[in-house]
Design brief:
about 150 residues; about 45% helix; two-stranded antiparallel sheet
């Protein structure tokens, strides 16, 4: 995951448990924290990239996520509650019609916030910082100071 997060110009990670990334690969993280990718997507990669992915191949420790099953297998919208997606939706509404206490956040701020995918302390710190920049720094302290 670090490889993909470190190069956002080349790789595009989706929100939540999704790991859709490079060259049209789609997949998700499982309940056990593994990343799965679909074999058809992997087959379309250049051989060097296939070998890279193969180096991490291991037997599944669980099933695919509920979201992946509903979206990718059944072909329906996911019924799974996703608080991060809902938060970004609400911030988007604030951005569209900002009250005086809100400083609209850029798309870059919105795109930077994701769930941590590993136990890495650095990754957690980076994700918490991105969340802070999206939500907390959007609140205008001056507006509240005037009201006090």
């Amino acid at each position: 995951m670090h490889r993909f997060k470190a190069d956002p110009e080349k790789y595009n990670l989706d929100d939540g448990p999704s790991v859709a990334a490079t060259h049209g690969i789609s997949g998700a993280t499982t309940s056990t924290g593994q990343v799965h990718a679909y074999i058809g997507d992997l087959a379309r990669l250049p051989i060097e990239e296939q070998r890279y992915w193969q180096s991490f191949n291991e037997w599944p420790r669980g099933t695919i996520s509920k979201r992946a099953h509903e979206n990718d297998i059944v072909g329906e919208f996911s019924s799974e509650y996703d608080p991060l997606h809902l938060l970004k939706y609400k911030i988007g509404k604030l951005n569209a019609a900002p009250p005086d206490w809100w400083q609209p956040r850029s798309e870059a701020h919105m795109d930077a916030v994701r769930y941590p995918a590993t136990d890495s302390t650095l990754e957690w710190a980076n994700e918490i910082m991105a969340f802070d920049q999206l939500l907390v720094e959007g609140i205008s302290a001056q507006t509240f100071a005037k009201a006090a």
